[in-house]
Amino acid sequence: MENIDWKNLPFGYYPTDYNVRCYFRNGKWGELEVSSSEYISIHMAATALHYGQEAFEGMKAYRGKDGKVRLFRWEDNAKRMRMSASGIMMEKVPEELFFAAIDKAVRLNARFIPPYGTGASLYIRPLLFGSGAQVGVKPAKEYMFVVFVTPVGPYFKEGFNPVAVELVHDYDRAAPQGTGHIKVGGNYAASLRPADRAHKDGYSSVLFLDAREKKFIDEAGPANFFGIKDGKYITPKSCTILPSITNKSLEMIAEDIGLKVERRPVPLEELETFEETGACGTAAIISPIKKIVDRETKKEYHYGDIAGPYSTKLYVTLRGIQEGEIEDKHGWTTVLEGI
Ligand SMILES: *Cc1c(COP(=O)(O)O)cnc(C)c1O
User: Which of 85, 137, 155, 247 is the right S-S partner for 224, CB 3.0 to 4.6 Å?
Assistant: First the structure.
């Protein structure tokens, strides 16, 4: 086991021993290759660099109280990466190859899997990009699939403490009928400027509105949004939202604990009616929101300085399932045997 200060690990890049790579060339995927280099060498005319042919995934391996290492709903990440690939005309990574790569990357770096109870986990970052040269705007003929892992602490240094979020009208992360529903780097490039502005103003993230009418809540930068009121878990439905696997899981847990689930357009005015709100994604599971400040109207929505009872229950349950402490009745986890 690595000698790391696990409890104070940031959510950042920490070097590990190996990464795995696979190339799609001449119409087929090659063998998985293991590398100990943190660098990749690619053609300067690669489509990833010019035309944004790049997609990624974010998932985690968790060390449970029972010592076992678990993945959470990896098949959904594999499927989403195929959707992302298809959305920007990239070669799809077959499910078996996706699993073989993450399995290998986790095993080879087993000494970096944070111990149970530290709040840290092993973040897994699969990425796929057009590595073949093109100058005209066309999909590449060659692709590279890479998986690296890095131990991470909680995404928000506040931990499971409510954060302040800035609602913006003057930026969109994705266009209607664009690429908001797939996990591609381009969406993130578009979100960097408003996110940086929000951070400088003391907010932990940005909440975007629907790009077409600016009337409905979309999502919170790299996380989906949900609100709770009157025994209901409500999350926006929009073609520009990335389908979060965490959100999908929380919806099921919400039903399990007796909440009614609504996935529908959420008008801006509804913000004042919620009892609890939060942002959800793999990185933090749930970041409860204490206040949302509308940058344009200066209107503020307050949800309390401590996490609400439903958000807490949802968080504790999902985390318990991921760490093998709560019965996984939906069959979401995969134990990686022998690590
Ligand atoms: C990855 C991502 C999420 C969260 O998805 P999870 O599968 O829950 O990790 C939410 N929004 C965006 C834009 C994302 O890229």
Answer: 247
CB of 58 within 6 A of ligand 1: the answer is yes
Best probe residue, ligand 1, of 219, 224, 240 (max atoms within 8 Å of C-beta): 224
Tell me how long the chain is. Answer: 339
Q: Is 28 a catalytic residue?
A: no
- Can you give the pLDDT at residue 154? 75
Locate the ligand 1 atom nearest the alpha carbon of residue 248 and give its number.
Answer: 8
What pTM, to 2 d.p., does this model score?
A: 0.97
Active-site residue (options: 183, 229, 260, 291): 183
Q: 66 with 324: CB under 8 angstroms?
A: yes
Report the C-alpha gap between 266 and 178 in whole angstroms: 20
CA dihedral of residues 177, 181, 185, 186 (deg, nearest 10):
20
- DSSP 8-state class, residue 184: B
Q: Which tokens go with 228?
A: 């709770």
Q: For tokens 């979100």, name the residue.
A: 191
Residue nearest to atom 10 of ligand 1 (CA): 223
- For every residue of 190-225, DSSP letters joined together read HHHHHHHHHHHTT-SEEEEBPTTTS-BB--BTTBEE
Rounded average pLDDT over 286-314: 97
Q: What is the mean pLDDT of the chain?
A: 96
Instruction: Tell me: pLDDT of 56 over 90.
Output: yes
Q: Is residue 104 within 8 Å of residue 30, measured between CB atoms?
A: no
Ligand 1, residues 84, 171, 183: which to mutate, most atoms within 8 A of Cβ?
183
| Domains of the chain, each with CATH number or no CATH | 6-152 (3.30.470.10), 163-322 (3.20.10.10)
For a pLDDT cut of 70, what percent of the chain falls above it?
A: 99
Nearest 5°: the CA angle 147, 58, 212 is 130
Q: Which pLDDT score is estimated for 158?
A: 62
Mean pLDDT over 31-55 rounds to: 98
